[in-house]
Amino acid sequence: xxxxxxxxxxxxxxxxxxxxxxxxxxxxxxxxxxxxxxxxxxxxxxxxxxxxxxxxxxxxxxxxxxxxxxxxxxxxxxxxxxxxxxxxxxxxxxxxxxxxxxxxxxxxxxxxxxxxxxxxxxxxxxxxxxxxxxxxxxxxxxxxxxxxxxxxxxxxxxxxxxxxxxxxxxxxxxxxxxxxxxxxxxxxxxxxxxxxxxxxxxxxxxxxxxxxxxxxxxxxxxxxxxxxxxxxxxxxxxxxxxxxxxxxxxxxxxxxxxxxxxxxxxxxxxxxxxxxxxxxxxxxxx
Length: 286
What we know:
This protein has helices spanning 16-32, 50-62, 78-90, 101-109, 136-145, 155-162, 200-210, 225-235, 266-271, 276-283; strands at residues 3-6, 35-40, 72-73, 94-97, 150-153, 167-172, 175-180, 190-192, 215-219, 242-246. It is α/β, with parallel strands linked by helices.
């Protein structure tokens, strides 16, 4: 049975872009004869708030969307993510990094990164590998001392381990096609953060496997991340879903809707008297 999911982060209220993604996932699941699950991606303890979780449930119910229970909350599964991380560490596919973002920016600006790429697909400075070959004894001492660190994927080692060419199946209303992937453009990406034993990348591939998701439908802003996700799936021997990356909702100025930009929320629209039927019609789901 096809299984899809809508997976918002509770770090703000939902806006029209979220509504489009939620409605598209629900519509595709219905047309395929499958189900759509809700997942709360709350691995960020500083930004994830209970009120925002309640708001997500309220907004989705207002749109007429219901989901099977129980709903998966990522914050309740840290032990599982730690196990996946330790798998990669034990195989020397991940290493601790003690560099701050400021230090990375300085090294990149000084020309420490060779080649044509200086940024990853999200525009962040491409990590120059400073901690990749650290002295094991010194690294162990720093960890024992409690020095803050992230864990990074050694992408070169990971690509050697995974072996085969990377890619995934993309789908849309016209059918399916094979898409090549280039995980190396992310460099040695962070797969576990300073305060939690995972990152978005590690948690999402783990959860898609646990929930047996067959089709991942999400915004085009996450299309490049799929390159990294298929590599992690290969390393952890996880099944690979099919992917669809939909267009993003934009404001009158052409900027994508975003919580960080204070885009008008569904709660704002509801308070202004806009109906769920009007939202559905506006987004093409009348």
